[in-house]
Specification:
With about 200 residues, the chain is an all-alpha fold. About 75% of the residues lie in helices and about 0% in strands.
C-alpha cells in the first residue's frame, strides 16, 4: 500500500494557478511549483505527466473557480442588471493588477490555440452568454429595460465591452478594473433603460 498523499492534486493546481497569474504561463515550471508546494519536480511529473496536462488542469480549475464566484456574486444582487454587472466584474475580478491581467490574457491566448483548452473555454463562454440573454429578458419583464430588437446581439455587444474594457483599463489604469467595466457596461445599457416613474 502506497503512502497517502500529503498534498492533494487540487491544492497543487490552486497553487499553480496563483503562480501562473503572478508570473505568466510561460514562466511556470515544475521546479517553481515544487518549491511552492514542498514536492520535488519528479513527484509533480508523476502526477501531471507534462506541463500541457498541468495547464489543462489549471484551465479547468480557473473556469470552475470563476463560475462559482460569478454565481455567488449574482446571488447577492437585487436586479437582473445588477446580476449582469456582477457577472462581468467578477469574471475579470482576477485582474487586481495589470500584471495579473496580462498573465491571465496570456493563458487565455493559450486556450484559443489549444483545441482541448478552447473546448473547455467555449462551453463556459456560451453558458455565460445564455445567462446574459436570460438576465436581459428578466430586466425587460421587470420593466427596467425597454424593447430590445435582438437580445442575443446585445448580449454579444456587452461581452465585447467586457473584454475590450479590460484591455483599455490595462492601458489606461483608470480606477479599478471592476469600476471601469461597470461604468462602460452601464453606458452601453443606458439607451435601453426605462426611466422610473415618479
Amino acid at each position: 500500500m502506497g503512502r497517502p498523499r500529503s498534498i492533494t492534486d487540487q491544492a497543487i493546481i490552486a497553487e499553480a494557478y496563483e503562480l501562473l497569474m503572478a508570473h505568466g504561463p510561460s514562466k511556470l515550471t515544475f521546479e517553481q511549483l515544487g518549491a511552492r508546494v514542498g514536492l520535488v519536480p519528479a513527484a509533480l511529473v508523476r502526477r501531471f505527466k507534462t506541463k500541457q496536462q498541468l495547464f489543462a488542469e489549471i484551465d479547468q480549475y480557473a473556469l470552475e473557480l470563476t463560475t462559482s464566484k460569478v454565481q455567488e456574486a449574482m446571488d447577492k444582487t437585487s436586479s437582473p442588471i445588477d446580476a449582469i454587472l456582477a457577472q462581468f466584474t467578477t469574471e475579470l475580478g482576477f485582474a487586481s493588477t495589470v500584471d495579473r491581467f496580462v498573465n491571465g490574457q496570456e493563458f487565455f491566448l493559450m486556450d484559443l490555440r489549444d483545441k482541448n483548452l478552447y473546448a473547455n473555454y467555449r462551453i463556459s463562454f456560451e453558458q455565460r452568454h445564455q445567462q446574459i440573454v436570460g438576465l436581459l429578458k428578466e430586466a425587460q419583464s421587470a420593466d427596467t429595460l425597454g424593447e430590445i430588437e435582438d437580445l442575443d446581439e446585445l448580449a454579444r455587444h456587452l461581452e465585447m465591452i467586457l473584454h475590450g474594457s479590460g484591455h483599455v483599463w490595462a492601458m489606461t489604469q483608470e480606477s479599478t478594473v471592476e469600476e471601469y467595466i461597470s461604468h462602460h457596461v452601464e453606458l452601453a445599457l443606458k439607451p435601453y433603460r426605462k426611466q422610473k416613474k415618479r
